[in-house]
Write a structure and sequence with these properties.
The chain has 127 residues and is α+β, with helices and mostly antiparallel strands. The protein has a single domain, classed as GTP Cyclohydrolase I, domain 2 (2-Layer Sandwich).
């Protein structure tokens, strides 16, 4: 068992949160910002060390992503932003300050424009 645990410490360990939806006012023009619109966040945390919860099965030994999602919504939903880039950076700042464990963070924020315009995504990645 000890050898197995040693190998676990050398593994790449990633937590992904896909399709976290926020409703907010976003757009360059007042008419675009007038109605709340869905923005989707994709998060990836690559932890530098294996979270203790792997061994303990206790929530307090890992990132509580449900609580983080609730706090993200409470902080950002129904706020007004002009630019996708600014929204992404504000979310990134919040997430980086929120997580207790050291991790590489990847964040993608996508705004859906509807047919025929598709969507726009802005990404930030820490080192």
């Amino acid at each position: 068992m000890r050898k197995y645990r040693k190998n676990l410490q050398q593994m790449r360990n990633v937590l992904k949160i896909d399709a976290l939806e926020l409703m907010l006012h976003l757009g360059a023009t007042a008419s675009e910002r007038a109605t709340p619109q869905k923005v989707v966040l994709e998060l990836e945390f690559e932890f530098y060390q294996l979270p203790r919860a792997v061994f303990t099965d206790k929530l307090e030994d890992t990132l509580c992503y449900f609580k983080m999602e609730q706090e993200l919504r409470a902080r950002f939903e129904l706020q007004t932003f002009h630019l996708l880039e600014h929204l992404a950076y504000r979310c990134y700042e919040f997430i980086a300050a929120y997580i207790a464990q050291q991790a590489k963070i990847r964040l993608r924020v996508t705004k859906f424009l509807g047919p025929p315009h598709g969507s726009r995504t802005f990404s930030l990645t820490s080192e």
